[in-house]
């Protein structure tokens, strides 16, 4: 099975990212900020899950919400065959750049299509990952539906990795993300709508696995500090996560950036860098 990227086309209720209608401007720039500033801070989460599962030759991995493809690239570097799906075409464009550079064999593919297009031939996946985005109000039902659909492309007993925020008291970024929640609600978005962040509950991942018909099979915690060269980079990185999208729909971008920068000031060090210790959590579940 060749490395494959597809644009996720399940119904809106099964969206893999916490997002609503596309933002009118700037989404391409935010996708680039995600790839260049923010995504690398989740590498410890990716690597911890891969180490635990022994990802390598023989692994046929499907990444749900693969974004700009860094997690897929790390798996491919271990010898895994990888495919990915995402709802964000801007991020997928960057993933294609990462996974199909000049010099790779001709059989490397990047295609567009539905979730079923991620499967090549009759070979089923044996690992499914969904590292993002548990912690957004609007994602649980949709992600459960996507996981159920993806499980149909995997072998029985395959590992499914779910990722999310750890305890709120151990995530310095939690206080900053509350700015997104407050601005969205102040602008009238009080429903469980697009990209509204909320603190993770202790059993969120287990509840998600149960909704998707999966069997929990172990979990772990990983330190994923968020570090930025300066305040501007921190603002750009956090805006790229999608958590502030609802706030940007109801407030001017300048206001969102100003209040986000103010919330970041307590985490800025004397040399101008920004540092926020966080703990993320992952759950290993199995298809039935």
UniProtKB/TrEMBL annotation:
<dbReference type="Pfam" id="PF13649">
    <property type="entry name" value="Methyltransf_25"/>
</dbReference>
<dbReference type="GO" id="GO:0008168">
    <property type="term" value="F:methyltransferase activity"/>
</dbReference>
<protein>
    <submittedName>
        <fullName>Methyltransferase domain-containing protein</fullName>
    </submittedName>
</protein>
<dbReference type="InterPro" id="IPR041698">
    <property type="entry name" value="Methyltransf_25"/>
</dbReference>
<dbReference type="InterPro" id="IPR029063">
    <property type="entry name" value="SAM-dependent_MTases_sf"/>
</dbReference>
<feature type="domain" description="Methyltransferase">
    <location>
        <begin position="62"/>
        <end position="138"/>
    </location>
</feature>
<keyword id="KW-0489">Methyltransferase</keyword>
<keyword id="KW-0808">Transferase</keyword>
<dbReference type="GO" id="GO:0032259">
    <property type="term" value="P:methylation"/>
</dbReference>
């Amino acid at each position: 099975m060749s490395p494959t990227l597809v644009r996720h086309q399940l119904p809106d209720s099964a969206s893999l990212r916490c997002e609503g209608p596309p933002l009118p401007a700037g989404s391409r720039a935010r996708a680039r900020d995600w790839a260049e500033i923010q995504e690398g801070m989740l590498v410890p989460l990716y690597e911890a899950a891969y180490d635990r599962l022994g990802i390598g030759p023989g692994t046929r991995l499907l990444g749900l919400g693969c974004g700009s493809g860094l997690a897929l690239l790390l798996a491919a570097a271990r010898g895994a065959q990888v495919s990915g799906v995402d709802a964000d075409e801007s991020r997928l464009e960057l993933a294609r750049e990462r996974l199909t550079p000049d010099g790779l064999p001709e059989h490397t593919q990047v295609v567009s299509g539905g979730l079923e297009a991620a499967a090549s031939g009759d070979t089923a996946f044996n690992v499914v990952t969904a590292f993002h985005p548990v912690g957004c109000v609007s994602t649980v039902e949709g992600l459960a539906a996507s996981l159920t659909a993806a499980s149909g492309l995997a072998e029985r007993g395959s590992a499914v990795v779910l990722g999310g925020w750890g305890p709120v008291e151990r995530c310095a970024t939690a206080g900053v993300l509350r700015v997104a929640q407050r601005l969205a609600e102040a602008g009238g978005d009080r429903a469980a709508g697009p990209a509204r962040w909320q603190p993770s509950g202790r059993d969120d991942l287990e509840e998600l696995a149960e909704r998707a018909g999966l069997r929990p099979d172990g979990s772990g915690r990983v330190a994923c500090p968020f570090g930025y060269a300066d305040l501007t980079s921190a603002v750009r990185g956090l805006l790229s996560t999608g958590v502030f999208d609802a706030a940007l729909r109801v407030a001017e971008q300048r206001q969102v950036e100003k209040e986000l920068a103010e919330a970041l000031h307590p985490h800025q060090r004397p040399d101008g860098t920004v540092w926020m210790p966080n703990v993320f959590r992952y759950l290993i579940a199995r298809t039935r």
